[in-house]
Amino acid sequence: MWRAELRHLFRRTVVRVQLVVLFLVPVLLAVAVKLAGGPADGQGPSFLDEVSHNGVFAALAGLTVCIPFFLPLTVAVVAGDSIAGEASLGTLRYLLTRPSGRARLLAVKALAVVVYSVAAALAVALGGLAAGAALFPVGPVLGLSGTSFSLADGIGRTLLAAVVVGLSLLGLAAVGMFVSTLIGSPVGAMVITAGTVVAALVVDSVPQLAFAHPWLFSHDWLAFGDLLRSPVTWGGIGRDLLLQVGYVAVFGAAAWARFTTRDVLA
Amino acid sequence: MVTEGLTKRFGELAAVDGVDLSVPAGAVFGFLGPNGSGKTTTIRMLLGLISPTAGSWSLLGREMPAAAEVALPRVGALVEGPAFYPWLSGRDNLARFDAAGPDGQRASRAARIEAALARVGLTAAAAKRYRAYSLGMRQRLGLACALLRPRELLILDEPTNGMDPQGTREIRNLIRDLASDGTTIFLSSHLLSEIEQICTHAAVMSQGHLLAQGTLAELRAAGEARVRVGVDDPSRAGEILARLGLCDVHVAPAEGVVSARLDAGGPADAARCCRELVEGGVEVSSLATVRPSLEELFVALTGEGFDVAR
User: Fold this and answer.
1) Which range marks the domain in which residue B54 is found?
2) Is the ipTM of this complex over 0.85?
3) Residue B299 domain-assigned?
4) CB within 8 Å: B101 and A93
């Protein structure tokens, strides 16, 4: 059943378009740097100033640019649509009388959202690697703490960074799925979920609300950069992933409680 | 399939109130009722889509909703119209639903899908996207989905909705075939002629209450029979029937017809009426015992009004 669900998800035009657009973002960055020249060292989004020296950084710059809004937006679309989309089509009643089992259906949907999240982040990384390799020299990667890694190691770390980024979106995905079990309109669920991202980013930017910052699912989204240190500092990434686990537990349980008991009238 | 005191309240409103249905195995059971009478709510409860406020029910002899995982795979359902993914073809839609639960063996999937499509006459349009289907084709695909695996019970909510006359006929034949294979069929409809043609049993709902249920013969017997006589002298015939003690004598001089209620165990049966009329010097040209049609019964039970009751 999970295989059928994944096939079903990745067949959808909207999902494919999202992945293509995500792939193109770092390509666009790389082309812009190629045409206009990179920013002065230390200026602009992280890693962008490195792109002209080493194409691998196009992937990391792409992740940095996409993580605050673009990636979360696409995850909000997929997670918000997960249950509410089936409800609005009416297909939910046929899945449930099939019977898919409510808990099983929710689990399969959740798994599909996880796979999508990681795939979306990987699309950005792969787009960056492809464009970077095509437009700029690639070579050993100079890490953030001054040591350099071999090219293979650098690419490996970049892909690992993408996976970390994908996983760090799961707190948001859990919120999105919970919202999706609450309301019948997929667009409404997507908008509310995307709204929580904006709210989190706003709260995160207000110093007076510092007490809340460590609890925001978006707070450590940029921690993936720590993978380019030698040795890797796992503090930020660990904190981030632990927080995502917490969000998944709380909102996953809420979604389960709601979905397994609600009346399906659509 | 049996329900006991099945009740669903939405706030104050009891959409379904204490319904005790009993659908015997092998029956073709017509579930009748005006719009808004609680038919679909009942069907949703039967399938476990909504949970009843009170009451219990069982499917195929299994207590629900506990046995949903074992009972539902043997039940095919069409609830409140078909629903599919518009961007997938008919065939891909069936594959999606087949893969979404137990008993959907992958090895036999393609063959079962083709068989189901052929059974509802949709093979030619199987590769078309669902978006491009007409209402009747959608309805057929819904039926195909319910027939993907061998079923012991089919719950069909308005299965011929939106179909052309040929389609309606084919579906009727399909239902007869399935019933003759021993499948129990629970069919909601407001097309009374349809129910009358294919059902063995029926139940009538109104405003959340179950008004009557039983075999069609039992339901018809519950309605009053009338004797209807064609005569040369209706007014004289009317007097004779009234003298016999029959109630509700109706004389229609223009048509040359008298009719009267024939109560079981009443003062006279049709043969006695005939004899008395002839002995009374009235020429009898035709004589029939008329039972009310299902439609007349239905209207008698649920009222005449055109407006939805609530």
Assistant:
1) 2-220
2) yes
3) no
4) no
